[in-house]
Amino acid sequence: MARLRDPEGGCPWDVEQTFDTIAPYTIEEAYEVDDAIRRRDLGDLRDELGDLLLQVVFHAQMAHESGAFRFDDVVEAVCDKLVRRHPNIFGDAEAIESAAAQLEAWEVHKANERESAAEREGRAASVLDGVPLGLPALLRSRKLLRRAARAGFAWPAPGDALEKVSEELAELRAEVASGDRERLHEELGDLLIAASGVAQVVDLDPEAALRDANARFERRLRRVEESLAAEGRTLGDAELSELLEHWQRAKREESGSW
User: Which of 164, 216, 220, 230 has a C-alpha 20 to 30 A away from that of 238?
Assistant: First the structure.
């Protein structure tokens, strides 16, 4: 990467890149790792992990050029973090017997680190410190809600969370009727985070749930297209009632419930 970034004889594209221009590729590669895992393709996973590692190398090289840090510093920092957050393994702390207890201890260590960082910066710490702004919105809502829940700000039961969804849905309906697009925008967001709140209470990942729902939608709509193609038609040739009938058939075929 140092050779690729060399202004005298490197690759013109690599030389032009900055942290900002490479960041989207880093995110994309992380999603491609996730895709390989979901497809259970270990060959692709090996390749995608290499691509993701390249992103780390790229950022580290740019940081080295600016005098900030080197790749070795990145490795050393994460090793130090692993040791610091596992005193039961690398130190004298009492052994932890379960994965749940380990996760709780990990979160305590992270919270302590956030408090120390806030103190160094001369500000009050928040349970929401450190939740990245660049996360996909649904994933970020999950992290925000989980942080709030650990501090005691959460619905006590699924029914309470579902009531909030009903409340936000009613408010969204009212804004649809009013035609106020700014308020409609806000209420749609409130409904989505309320749905994420249900996921928090029942301990499900809303991002994963939506990804799976996207996959189901794609499979079913492709079935509808195939069914219409067999009749020499496309989606645009059919009435909505027909499309819904084909959709229900696709759902039944997928579940095997005829």
Answer: 216
Q: Which residue has the higher pLDDT, 254 or 173?
A: 173
In this structure, CATH architecture of domain 12-84: Orthogonal Bundle (1.10)
Nearest residue to 187 (alpha-carbon basis) of 202, 206, 168: 168
How far are the Cα atoms of 84, 97, 106, 149, 234 from residue 100, in angstroms, in the given order? 18, 9, 10, 16, 51
Supply the DSSP symbol for 94. Answer: P
Q: What is the mean pLDDT of residues 5-30?
A: 95
Say yes or no to pLDDT of 258 above 50.
no
At CA 181, angle to CA 175 and CA 183, rounded to 5? 55
Spatial neighbors of 169 by CB under 8 A, at least 6 apart, are 191
Compute φ and ψ for 6, nearest 5 degrees: -65, 120
Neighbours of 113 (CB within 10 A): 15
Residue among 91, 192, 92 nearest 136 (CA): 192
CATH superfamily name and code, 137-204: MazG-like (1.10.287.1080)
What are the residue ranges of CATH 1.10.287.1080 in the chain? 12-84, 137-204
pLDDT tens column, 80-125? 999 988 888 888 877 777 877 777 777 777 777 878 887 788 888 8
Show the 3-state SS of 124-177: CCCCCCCCCCCCCHHHHHHHHHHHHHHCCCCCCCHHHHHHHHHHHHHHHHHHHH
Reading the block at residue 188, the tokens are 């749609």
